[in-house]
Amino acid sequence: MVRAALTGRHRIGREPAPYAPYVPAASVVVASLLAALPIMSSSGWYPDFGYLALISWRLLRADPWPAWWAAPLGLVNDLFTGCPIGFSVALWSASMLALDLIDRRTMWRDYWTEWALAAVLIGMDRWLQWWLAAITGARLSYFTIVPPLVVSICVFPISAWIVSRIDAWRLRR
Amino acid sequence: MATARPGWSRRAQYGLFFSFLAVIAGIIVGVILLTLSLVAPKSFNTVRGAALDVTAPITGALHEVTATAGGLFTGAGNYWDAANQNAKLKRERQAMLQRMVEAKAIFQENRQLKATLQLREREQNIVATGRIVGSSFNSPRRFAILSAGSTDGVRIGMPVRSPDGLVGRIIDVGALASRVLLVSDRANIVPARLLRGGIPVISQGRGDGTIDVRPLEVGRNPFKRGDIIITSGTGGLYPPLVPIARVVKLDDDGAIALPLADPANTSFAMVQPPFEPAAVAAESAPTSESP
């Protein structure tokens, strides 16, 4: 792994933290909880923090959590963000499956590939939210997807960096 | 489950296969839940309310912090420009005093006219008062979190207003907090009229903090910049004569307006009972859609 080479010298006797297996899932829940911040926005341009954290972890590692955990994590996100219940459950599980299938096909990865993959997934997320709003009686123009999409795609590298820091911390690298 | 075949271990192969099955089961469960919450929006009311109760106290506490910090800054800014502001406020106060005397006279005349017409005056009582502490800042929908819940008497469907104007209506209720569908949400359609002339119009949110207003009668565009839109009371949910928005821009057959009750600056919001409960009950099916 290229990232491991960037994290400095390895020392003998440094083990991962005992709670290390639960840190990724916990950080996704915390990211979902960011929806409780007292931000008053008249336009929904902020990124979907929970989903960003989920795909950042999944793109960094193949096994941040057992794959089926995506469903309960999605349920937590639905409850905290006010999405219709079941939306994130289905979308997050489907993203895990899609990334597994993509992992089988790709021969190599670099940062640009990951960013492009993340952009496609974020685009799906935003489009599905738009579609869901449309069938529940709030049909907006297509243009309204663009600003939050651009914001989310630009925020992804930051999210990926934070996740890689958390990963290094939990594994005591 | 990263590689196609995790070696020769039968156990590892089964593990991989079952984790695939688990993910597919997750997708199926998600789709079923989603269908249920779209077809029968009321089925998850309790769970959604409970989640609101979990997050709303956190949001409320953080809101206090940011409001205090913001208050310090604006307070400092006010001191900076105190002399200018003082003079301006004095001028405004003079103008307001004259307007107030006129308004008092009109109010008295109005009361006499109503008495002669023997119009029944409806008492508009307030169910609960709360703070707007949060919003759906990462969604195409426009919701706000209000710090008053079912223990304060708030029920789904009740209109919410602030001293400045109409905020929206309640769509989710927890014990301590509730979720408000703002007037700037696309799904929130409010029967309204123009304050100048009383022409009936329809107000519908645009999802970006502004409101689309269209006249009910097609033809000439009745709007002017600066026009105030108020509720008409038609439909029985929203009380009449509550200001909604001010027109900022005209387009070909209507106008775009800015809500007068900006959730970002609204400190308190009041929950009122539906204006004509009987009328709302009669057509509750189309008015109670879910988020």
Features:
heterodimer, A: 173 residues, mainly alpha, 7 helices, 63% helix, 0% strand, B: 291 residues, alpha+beta, Thrombin, subunit H, 6-stranded antiparallel beta barrel, 5 helices, 12 strands, globular, disordered C terminus
* Protein structure class of chain A: mainly alpha
End-to-end distance of chain A = 13 Å
How many helices of chain A?
Answer: 7
Low-confidence stretches of chain A: none
Q: Largest beta sheet of chain B: what is the strand line-up?
A: 1-2-5-4-3-12
Helix content of chain B: 25-40%
Helices and strands of chain B, in order, run as: HHHEEEEEEEEEEEEHH
**Largest interface, C-beta closer than 8 angstroms, per-chain residues:** A-B, 58 and 65 residues
End-to-end CA span of chain B: 35 Å
Tally of helical runs of chain B: 5
What oligomeric state do these chains adopt? heterodimer
Overall domain count of chain A: 1
Shape of chain A: globular
